[in-house]
Write a structure and sequence with these properties.
Rossmann fold; 2 domains; 6 helices; alpha/beta; about 200 residues; globular; two-stranded antiparallel ribbon; single chain
């Protein structure tokens, strides 16, 4: 399966995906909204096309997403991964890749959605947090959960220490989920009620 990876920053999860490439996982293109993102260099070093689509050049999120979709389709992408992509996606992207937009989030959703999840976990005083791989829907970190991994919150942890421990789990679970999707292991069942959440399975 050909994946397209959307990034905005350093790209450590992108590196985990690139390192996991095999007969199932192919990265067709890496797209960033930030021209200086280190993730673009990681892609180029791995021989993967790296494309910048600057969100500031577009009048709105929908127009930006339409341009991203054009790039993804040009590279024959069939599944999209948000790997540190700091933009909310719109129905333009979601409808172009139905049930095939995947995100990784540094918390055990539905706890601590949105930005600074690690900071939220520390402020709340939880003893266990983790990371979640989920399908993306129109909400913020509300899509169906595909996999979760737990991480202890240790005495004396600050945001940097907790983030580093979470990243180790993220780098393991994300490629595992992508490999399962590429192997046909993802099922999505929708209820007759259009307002009901879909049920997902991953094997």
């Amino acid at each position: 399966m050909i994946f397209g990876v959307l990034v905005s920053g350093s790209g450590t999860n992108l590196k985990a995906i690139l390192d996991a490439r095999d007969e199932r996982i192919e990265v067709g293109v890496v797209v960033s909204n930030v021209a200086t993102a280190k993730a673009l260099d990681r892609a180029r070093s791995a021989g993967v096309p790296a494309v910048v689509v600057d969100h500031k050049a577009f009048a709105g999120r929908e127009a930006f997403d339409a341009a991203v979709v054009e790039v993804l389709r040009a590279h024959r992408v069939s599944c999209v991964v948000l790997a540190g992509f700091m933009r909310l996606v719109t129905p333009v992207l979601l409808s172009a890749f139905p049930d095939r937009v995947v995100n990784i989030h540094p918390a055990l959703l539905p706890a601590f959605p949105g930005v600074h999840a690690q900071r939220q976990a520390l402020a709340y005083g939880v003893k266990v947090t983790g990371c979640t791989v989920h399908l993306v829907d129109a909400g913020m970190d509300t899509g169906p959960i595909l996999a979760q991994e737990t991480v202890p919150v240790l005495d004396g942890d600050d945001e940097a220490a907790l983030t580093a421990r979470l990243l180790e789990k993220e780098h393991a679970v994300l490629p595992r989920v992508l490999r399962a999707i590429a192997g046909g292991g993802l099922t999505v069942t929708r209820a007759a009620d259009p307002g009901a959440r879909p049920r997902v399975g991953l094997r």
